[in-house]
Amino acid sequence: MLLSPTVPMWIFDRATLQILEVNDAATEAYGYTRTEFLRMTILDFRPAEDIPKILQIALRAPGSRSNEPVWRHLKKDGTVFPAKVVSWEITFDGHKAALVLAEAVRSASMQN
């Protein structure tokens, strides 16, 4: 179980981008079940037009940081929303992974 039951969090494999773990807050916020999330990659809940930029950032060397703390995310129902994202490099079940915390942004001034 991931920390913080109120903030959406997940862990993904840095090589495959596959979701390895997800907390209940993420399943509630995004509308996917835990089983659905665990079958997804981080690209599956991003708008199609954002995928090239996501790949460029996600496949960077570990420890490098994005200059873009706010990204567009996609709920199961098709709703696109801005999310402030923070991530940390970790090892999870033998995978080089990233732990991601994503909070919906409510202020228009924070959006891309």
Question: Top keywords for this entry?
Answer:
globular; 3 helices; alpha+beta; 112 residues
How would you sum up this structure in a few lines?
Helices cover 18% and strands 33% of the residues. It has helices spanning 24-30, 34-38, 51-58; strands spanning 9-13, 19-22, 70-74, 80-92, 95-104.
SSE blueprint:
Layout: E1 9-13, E2 19-22, H1 24-30, H2 34-38, H3 51-58, E3 70-74, E4 80-92, E5 95-104
Antiparallel strand pairs: 1-2, 1-5, 3-4, 4-5
Notes on the protein architecture:
The chain is an alpha+beta fold and 112 residues long. The chain has three helices and five strands. A five-stranded antiparallel β-sheet has the order 2-1-5-4-3.
DSSP strand count: 5
Overall geometry comes to globular
**Widest β-sheet, arrangement of strands:** 2-1-5-4-3
Mean pLDDT: 87
**Helicity level:** 10-25%
Q: Kindly report how far apart the N and C termini lie.
A: 31 Å
Largest sheet: 5 strands, antiparallel
Radius of gyration: 13 Å
